[in-house]
Amino acid sequence: MKIGDLGLSQPANSTSLDNEIYGIIPYITPEILKLLLSKVSDVFPFSKASDIYSMGMIMWELTTGCKPFANVEHEHSLVYKIIDEKRPEITNDTPEDFANLMKKCWNSDPKKRPSAIRVHDIINYWLTEDNDVNIFNQAEEIRLELIKSKMLGPEFCEKSHSKAIYTSRSLSFLISKSSSSNSPSFNMRQKYITKEYEFDINDINDISNIQSESSEKWKIEDETQDDSNNRKHVKTDTNINTENKE
């Protein structure tokens, strides 16, 4: 089984034909949220790297007894902040090694997140090395003391926002609301659509597919040249023109 989003689990080899995205916003990866808002694709590739990101959030819950981003409404504003690399604040009593692993799991680049095997190896190392075991035992003692003094745990968490939703739901409302020019999130959405992305020349066909699916008009132009390996890079923008520079 795989971690879907702490509300939706499915087999790792699932090939559901339902393209609608479901989930709990704090547990969904930035790359999925970005695709959802930009509307450049009808396919939302949950992956093993997505599971690692979700696991990082669960690790944070274990250290605090709180739910991530419980004090804010789960809507566009939070989504854009997550894309901008906002993550829950790590508490001072969290062991450094544990905190570092969480940060790696939260990396915005899925390729830089550790694999499940790597996570297993790291945790196994913690459990077998005396020094690491002692560090975690000490951290647990501190955590229990903080809980007793009500400085940590559910009672210590900030008041939960009435629109912080922790049940899996369809997130199509993010698309419909961000698409309206009258929506406060429209300009925020435009900010992300006009961001520049680098692609290998081999991905031009993929970009063409994106153009046909998106309601936006894109401009594609060369960004750099690399004579040593005969590769090109392209830049996407929301202008109407399409031009290539050799």
Task: Describe this entry's structure for a reader.
Keywords: ATP-binding, Kinase, Nucleotide-binding, Transferase. Residues 4-12, 180-187 and 192-246 have low confidence and may be disordered. The protein contains nine helices and five strands; from the N terminus they run βααααααβααβαββ. A hairpin with a 4-residue loop joins strand 4 (219-226) and strand 5. The protein has 246 residues and is mostly helical. The chain has a domain at 22-178: Transferase(Phosphotransferase), domain 1 (Orthogonal Bundle), CATH 1.10.510. It has a three-stranded antiparallel beta sheet, with no helix packed on it. It has a two-stranded antiparallel sheet with strand order 1-2. The protein has helices spanning 30-38, 48-64, 76-83, 96-105, 116-128, 130-148, 172-179, 186-193, 204-213; strands spanning 22-23, 169-170, 199-200, 219-226, 231-237. Helix 1 (30-38) crosses helix 3 and helix 2 (48-64) packs antiparallel against helix 4. Helices cover 41% and strands 9% of the residues.
Care to give the gist of this entry?
With 246 residues, the chain is mainly alpha-helical.
